[in-house]
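Fig. S4 source data, part A: sequence.
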Amino acid sequence: EQDGEGVVVNGELRAELLVAADGVRSVVRKGLYPDYAGPRYSGVSAYRGIADVAVDDGGGETWGRGQLFGFARLIDGRFYWYGTVNQPPGTTSEPTAFASWHAPIPQLIAATETVLQNDIYDLTTPLVPFVQGRIVLLGDAAHAMTPYLGRGACSAIEDAGALARHLQNTSDLTTALAAYDAERRPATTKLVKRSRSIGRLSQTENQLLRTLRDGLFGIGGKLMSLRARK
């Protein structure tokens, strides 16, 4: 509950401002905007793990037919890896789809003790206003996005920086919060849409689209290689 002087949380805690950073399934966002569609399943489930294995490869990402796999070497020498598969929400399975993929993908999976599986959701666009009175949405509560741009956590940090900056720049709370929403909602809306588009491209099962995609990326890679040599 809120009034002109502050916000009351759970009937106990009163504050001048509530910053809601409670994730993609935000309870606060649901309370503020009960008719908003909220999280939307992307059609993709993600597997993640950390492998302690000797592999002479710094990392990379491979796109397949409705599947994607990437990995990177951590600072301690282990490897973080992730794989995504098109499948219905709530499907529990093992990352067997990658068993026949190129090295070192099978080795990484085999050397992993614990594999996490999570369905991937983002927020329906248009995003709701990030501000209502003295309540502010931040991070995934405001703009949860798919991971294909790697900008989810980065955007949350940028939210925090922008909110702090606007609060410091003016003593009027309403003005500061309006400026925060005006800066961050358009920027993150673009990221949500772009990440969703890249996900559709990387996860496509259409043969024609995959052929065009792979051909264009192959040409792009060769052009970048030539540019680097120059």
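Fig. S4 source data, part B ends here. The mean pLDDT is 94.
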